[in-house]
Amino acid sequence: MIGTSCTWRHAIAWLVVLTVAAPVLAADAPAPAAPAAAPTTKPSGPYAQAIPGTTVTIDMVPIPGGEFTPATGAAVKIKPLFMSKCEIVWDAYDIFAFQMDMTDQQKAAGVDAKSRPSRPYGDQTHGFGRSKHPAIHITRHAAEQYCVWLNKKTGKTYRLPTEAEWEYACRAGSTTTPQASGLDAVAWYWDNAEDKTHPVGKKSPNGWGLHDMLGNVMEYVIIPGAAADAKPTAAGGSYADEAKDVHCGARKSQTADWNSTDPQNPKSKWWL
């Protein structure tokens, strides 16, 4: 999940799909501890990453290494890593977006101003809810900058997951994904979402303890080797997708519609 993506996760198609690709945070698993007198503080199991100076935490889950064959392409080997248990929520993103970790003096001095999001031009939640709801309508640039900020705050290395890492974590060791008959238990999608996002973690987790990998909001993934100007890609399907479009191999690339309601010219690099 960063993602977002920690792992991030979301995606947007205005009018038809009112969603946004959200980050799912990923963190590389710690290297084997070197023989040393001092004990290591690196996690080996699930852990809660606190955001310093706040009461907000991001739950991280270990993902074992292995090999699998993605929906498209040849077999891929995945190294052990950590992913956020849930999609990144507004509670965690707002601290970064609205400088809630800075003093009034720092804000007045413009500290870190260029690397923080501009003020949104409208209600980015669209009335869906904020607390415990996935952060939506943010650009991939914003998701990546959130990771940069989180790294500075925590001293750890967080990033968006690669496309292969995300799909591997989504499958959780299975070669299939839930069909329509079982999708309701793990995902918010067209048939049960009532045309809105929902608080994270309300549906059953997959085999590795990750919630909302399918549905609710799509999630940004990185495609290694892609051109610098390649369109952002989001995975997993959203609350506005039909069952056939909600699965571990589901992908959508950003289109002009994702920014269609942005009145700015040029379009915001932070918000969709």
Write a compact overview of the structure shown:
The protein is α+β, with helices and mostly antiparallel strands and 272 residues long. It has helices spanning 90-97, 104-108, 140-154, 163-171, 180-183, and strands at 8-9, 23-24, 26-28, 47-50, 57-63, 66-68, 76-78, 81-84, 219-221, 233-235, 251-253.
Task: From the structure above, extract its key features.
about 270 residues; single chain; 5 helices; 11 strands; alpha+beta; globular
Characterization of this structure:
The structure is a single chain. The chain is an alpha+beta fold and 272 residues long. The protein is 15% helix and 14% strand. It has helices at residues 90-97, 104-108, 140-154, 163-171, 180-183, and strands at 8-9, 23-24, 26-28, 47-50, 57-63, 66-68, 76-78, 81-84, 219-221, 233-235, 251-253. Strands 3-8-5-4 form a four-stranded antiparallel beta sheet, with no helix packed on it. It has a three-stranded antiparallel beta sheet with strand order 9-10-11, covered by helices on one side. A two-stranded antiparallel sheet has the order 1-2. It is globular, with a radius of gyration of 18 Å.
